[in-house]
Specification:
Layout: H1 2-28, H2 34-82, H3 95-101, E1 109-110, E2 116-117, E3 125-131, E4 136-145, H4 151-156, E5 162-167, E6 173-176, H5 184-190, E7 195-203
Length: about 200
């Protein structure tokens, strides 16, 4: 009986020692030092500074095929309708025609002022106007970010007869014409950094 109680006491003593050791260790390891917190904060800030612009560019690049698809659908739709007319089939065409077609689009946005936003740059718009006395029309994309360049031109180059690209108003570089095939390298060279690029897709 005495030996049994001694064994139990020994076990109890051992258990209490096992419990006490982790408690003492835990109290020593509580919290982080100021240096550790500073290092982790610096790493997180560095990742944010480097990563956020890259994520933004990636999002824009992913939008390009869908935007191109919507604009290509509009061009094809206009061409089909123009097939029944002669002389000046695109006379009077405007952004209202595009706005009516993209009213339910999840890619292009129609504003209350009948403006269409393409989403490939900050406040970037799409304009439509007839040219050559209504024999053709131009699809103009303003404020396109460099991340979407030259991808948007590559998507639409099969439907456009000629393409120009530049930064801001005025004539840009011709990257496709009746005599010269489309050049993705020339388009990339003509694009400037930021939301400043303007594309013109001429359709007849």
């Amino acid at each position: 009986m005495h030996s049994q109680s001694r064994v139990q006491a020994a076990r109890a003593g051992t258990d209490s020692r096992l419990v006490a050791v982790p408690l003492r260790r835990r109290s020593r390891q509580a919290g982080f030092s100021l240096i550790e917190v500073s290092i982790v904060t610096a790493i997180i800030l560095l990742i944010a500074v480097v990563g956020i612009p890259a994520i933004g560019n990636y999002v824009l690049e992913n939008k390009v095929p869908k935007v191109g698809q919507e604009l290509a659908r509009f061009i094809v739709h206009m061409r089909i309708n123009a097939g029944t007319s002669s002389g000046a089939p695109y006379q009077g065409i405007g952004v209202g025609n595009l706005a009516a077609q993209v009213i339910d689009s999840s890619v292009l946005t129609k504003t209350a002022a009948n403006t269409v936003l393409h989403g490939l740059g900050s406040d970037g718009t799409v304009e439509v106007a007839s040219e050559d006395s209504g024999k053709g029309f131009v699809l103009r994309l303003k404020k396109v970010n460099h991340a979407a360049c030259p991808s948007i031109a590559s998507v639409l180059q099969r439907l456009a007869d000629s393409i120009t690209v530049g930064s801001g108003e005025g004539a840009g570089a011709t990257v496709k014409s009746a005599t010269a095939p489309y050049s993705a390298l020339a388009t990339e060279a003509a694009c400037a950094k930021g939301d400043v690029n303007q594309f013109e897709f001429h359709v007849t």
